[in-house]
Amino acid sequence: MRVMRLPLATLLLSGCGLITGLDDFTVTDSASSTTTTAGGGGGASGTGGQGPAACPEGHADCSGTCADLATDPHHCGTCNHDCLGGECQGGQCQAFTLVEGLAAPANILVEDDRLVWSDGDRITVASLDGTGQKTLVAGPGVIQRIAMDALHVYWTNAGTGEVTRAPRDGLGPSESIVSGQLSPHAIALHADRVYWTDPSDGSVRSAMKDGSATLTHASGYGQLRTLAVDGTSAYSADPATGEVMKLPLGGGTTVILATGQADVCELALDDTHLYWTSGSGVHKVPLQGGTTVTLAESDAYPCGIALDVTAIHWTEPAAGTVMRVPLEAGAAEVVASSQLEPFGIAVNQTAIYWTDLTAGTVQRMRK
């Protein structure tokens, strides 16, 4: 049925004569189910057909939500950039405490949906938001370093002389896979093997991930406390000589990649370069050897190190800062300041995580 309402002063209808004095007239057409009204305006109710009101000055329309990009933690700097629980200041997400009340959290790892950190003689696994915490081990001994693959978390224990692992979902017991070591320290995983250093005899050793088939790849160096591994070589730094070294896993001549490197704290590598933090800054060198490049100078003893596809991140415990710089060099940027003693650091696609030894916390900040 069609209904038409028309504003007319007069209307002549066939066979009905002249009708006068009508402001509105409704015509119904039974062949249509629509009603058309003339007069009274059109468009969206209350808008005169102009659409939704514009956002106030200083705000952006984020899919129908007017957001202040300088302060909105769900739209920080740009629409839909969520600070994951942190505040937004000046369009930048801020760090916030994810876990607190720890004794002395040191190492930290993040992979897929798991966050793992060491705290004295304890190792804890949790979801990325810090919830669902499960203790993998609680003493005895001294946890030195940790590593993680898709199934297990591995760690070195200098107090017991063991390399140990536990299911990373926290649903099974820990197991010692290698024992009888003097003082195992740094640890790394590659393919089906676990590697570690022992500063007591300056060695690099490995075993299958179940602890079988132990090999010694190098020995007789200084107190090797750092380690990175790829398919053919192990990389470490000798604090006695200040040398950063490439040690062939299958035997052969050691390659000195860099010299004059005092107080090397941690190593990291990608497909083309080795990176490290030292008492003088953050550096890189090609894996095949070449010129050492200083990415950032610092006298604040850079330590923890983590890479993503575009940048290298590190902690400066002495300065209380977390920093980053592009992998291809550029200006260093302060990620977070006013920390007490940031130490270990890890990154994934969306966030940066670090431990604070003195504050006893795990921090997170959206990239």
From TrEMBL:
<protein>
    <recommendedName>
        <fullName>DUF5050 domain-containing protein</fullName>
    </recommendedName>
</protein>
<dbReference type="InterPro" id="IPR000033">
    <property type="entry name" value="LDLR_classB_rpt"/>
</dbReference>
<feature type="compositionally biased region" description="Gly residues">
    <location>
        <begin position="38"/>
        <end position="50"/>
    </location>
</feature>
<feature type="signal peptide">
    <location>
        <begin position="1"/>
        <end position="19"/>
    </location>
</feature>
<dbReference type="InterPro" id="IPR011042">
    <property type="entry name" value="6-blade_b-propeller_TolB-like"/>
</dbReference>
<keyword id="KW-0732">Signal</keyword>
<dbReference type="InterPro" id="IPR050778">
    <property type="entry name" value="Cueball_EGF_LRP_Nidogen"/>
</dbReference>
<feature type="region of interest" description="Disordered">
    <location>
        <begin position="30"/>
        <end position="50"/>
    </location>
</feature>
